[in-house]
Amino acid sequence: MQRYFPLLLMVIGVLFFSPLNAQKKELKTKFGKISEEEIKMASYSGDPSAMAVVLFDKGVLGHRYTDNQGFVLVYERHTRIKIFNKEALSLADNAIFHRKTEKVSDLKATAYNMENGKLVETDLKKENIFEENLTKNLYITKFSIPAVKEGTIIEYKYTMTNQGGVGMLDGWRFQQVHIPTIWSEFSSSVPTFVQYKKMSQGWEPYTLAEESNENESISISYIQRSDGLVATSKVQNIKLDYTANKMHFIMENVPALKTEPFVNSALDYVARIDFDVEAVYETDFVPTGTSYRLTNTIPTTYNQPWQALGRDMLEDVYGPILNSEKATEGPAQQCTAGLNGVTEKTAAVYEYIGKNFQHKDFDLIWKTQTLDALMKDRQGSATDLNLLFINMLRRVNVKSWPVLVSTTDNGRIMPFRVSTDEFNRVIAAVMAEDSSLILVDMAGFPNPIGLLAKDDLNGQGLLLKSEENIDWIPLQSKVPTKSAIVANLQLTAEAGLSGNVTYMESGHGAVKARKFIQSESQEAFVKKQFKDWFVDGTLKSVKADKADQWREPSLKTEFSFETPSFGNAAADKIYFSPMQGLGLHENPFKNPERKFHIDFGALHEEVINLTFKIPAGYKVEEMPKGAKMAFGDNEITFDYFVESNAELVKINLKKRLKNDFIEADRYQDLQSFYSMMVAKMEEQVVLSKI
Questions:
Q1: What element of type H or E holds 387?
Q2: Which letter does DSSP use for residue 316 in this model?
């Protein structure tokens, strides 16, 4: 099922605004007019640790009328940012995504630096502005502001005109994830023949939130021709009245959104407002006394179903790519030569692309280049590589289709906002021998087949099988995420420890382990995973089975060790914590309250089986008690079993996560549950001399 956030009940409910502050609020800004206060600012008082602060960010969406084009939407943005440290230098690199019908103009940007007591301005040059054609309908304008360093103020401003008329309204983000904002302002004026709904989210209060319908007038010209024997013509001017919907929003001193553990996407929570155009009406001029009134007539609706959107994407965007044979037929046949089964062919094509093509780390659902260019340059976005993957599978008769997804960086999909903007990546669905679907993302290579990249695990994706078969599917991995530790250990009278350990990981943990072993070593991996055992300990032997075989969904590591300081020996007693260095060390949910929903990302199972041999001459004096705990309707279970005899102490722990999404209103109960688990794993065993 599609995951619907309860948060939406709060954020989408704010559809009609009334003034929160009736007094006029205004921040006058002029490009290049930098205040002394901005120049001297060494940190932001509202967040002294911030790497930068948005001094102001102002957006204006308006409209104008021309005799040639009629009504067009015009969007202007003006932003100024103070850089405090080098971690924020990337804020000088900017990109403006725009449609084919939208023209970016009047772009200017400047960096301001104090040098030898003087303010030095470094302007953006035209040759440092680049426009790329991502698709036939989508463009990107890139610019990088020069001379940016710690202490720099950067400023940029541009205008974007929708030359195709009206029909698309972009939203506004008042809050940033990593840096605070002192002033954020958005205003708009849109004729009422554009019908749209508004969606607001976030917890930050508006300084000003106003909305009203106001009458506007323009003067338009037309040529009046006579019907006499001699044709004549003259220019006539008429007054045209119409109604515009006006909005004005201001937020001040907006803190950076600082997330907590187990938050899937910060964009799901930032203070923002979005618009969804539902219809654009044709209009008539109706005479009203000495003027004319613009009235709505026939609507063109934009509220198409998801199936229609998927059909358009498959037919107009992906179809030509997926069915092209010229550039991919040869490589597909070569890398699968001698292979017959779907699984083998899929793995072979996956490995061919993963090892021979570079993944460019940005996401769009649009292709950024032709197949010919991709095969030549050997680098592309995740979408580029996944479309290539599907194409090559089809060349060797493996059924596969594109799936539109929204990664965790892009946030949740709003089910009522049918737009390509809801997605940012295309992954692949492959039909296995048993007719089930296996989801594959080239961005996750070298994940084993069936293990999706973590950022893909975000609700549902739109599967595009054919123009008649478009449907939602859950974004789930075939490979389970598990971990297990089995250890046979020997305690010494001095509270030392030695023994043999088998450690197994499957899923994302196994992929992470293999990458670490390849970059470091098996020894370094064991010492990192069991670091509390190796403060003074020695690794005797280690073997990671199939550590170089990416296709394996799991990894088994066996090692032996000894350490002189596992517990404490004093007054004829030995004290030790069986779970030292294992399981949970502390409660990850520390804050007393939480607004964010808890998203663990994936289901998980953890098993720990420990057997301790008691040193000769000692007996068990005190043991932890066994426990069985469950959160909610067995959504998280925790089983802790203990057993002892004259020679051995056995501890068996099993923790299962059966629900990876917990709503924020259950946070207090979840926090308490984790506190109980941590407390149980901290309990000690006490041995005493016989």
A1: helix 382-395
A2: I
